[in-house]
Amino acid sequence: MLRDFQSVLKKLHLKVTPKRLAILEVLKNESVYLSPEEVWRKLRKQFSQVGLPTVYRNLEELAQGNVISKVTHPNRQLYYYFCLNPSHHHHFICLSCRTVEDIDFCMFRELEKRVKQELKGRVVSHILQVNGLCKKCLKKDGGSHA
Amino acid sequence: MLRDFQSVLKKLHLKVTPKRLAILEVLKNESVYLSPEEVWRKLRKQFSQVGLPTVYRNLEELAQGNVISKVTHPNRQLYYYFCLNPSHHHHFICLSCRTVEDIDFCMFRELEKRVKQELKGRVVSHILQVNGLCKKCLKKDGGSHA
DNA sequence: TTTAGTGCAAAAATTTTGCACATAG
DNA sequence: CTATGTGCAAAATTTTTGCACTAAA
């Protein structure tokens, strides 16, 4: 997997640094979305000297390069998560445990068509994010969420 | 229209204050989404003494009460706009001139069904926001946007 | 008169920048 | 070597809070 990351980074003309790889590992090993600070805390277990700005910079670059995904959370905090196909932006996020699940039903083509036909506009990007409670959290507590 | 606002506020158990009404007027008279600070600047033309915190507090309350809508902008700034049906969250927003247009093609029922059936989860809220360039902006500059 | 709203100042929280040093290519 | 990455400290930005005072119901 490290190998894969290396080639991905190279394609983006990002240098392969230990910390950059570690950030990817952290995200990859989490099934939930993390804030920059949380990524940083985890990173510090490996690298006692790592700055929060480095984490911010890296997360942003990686998201720009579509290696990871940004999550648009109702609480407006910044979150990122690793997903196999980060160019696919249809997610179901659990407000309680933070799990992210893909929604494969994609209506984007349809949408794009309608924006073009009806509004005469052009789509640059879109967010389809469904916020809710996942299976587990529904069972656990019926849905108490922050 | 002031009358309408009054009854809306009463329903939400929000007191009808001149500044609250003025905030609604500001948003109503704009066809684009505004940041809290922008609302505040406009407000100060009428009320020389109005605090930015007041604007923040009011916008948040009004959004909570579904009187106005929050915009989820890629630049992560907070924006609000007035829309006739703020419980309808399918929008096309122009990244250039900030116009908001409704998207009436609603696939939400379908989505909700699938989240229930396939993920066994529950939908709490959703965002469908299409970011792009509107008709006018496309004509104007072919799409230079921040 | 009781509850909610507001101004101000100040704080909090989050994110970004500048710059000297370090490291990957 | 040369361009990029990083740590640190510091700043910038945005949003929130506390509290005394005011105004709506």
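Chain A has two domains: 1-84, 86-146.
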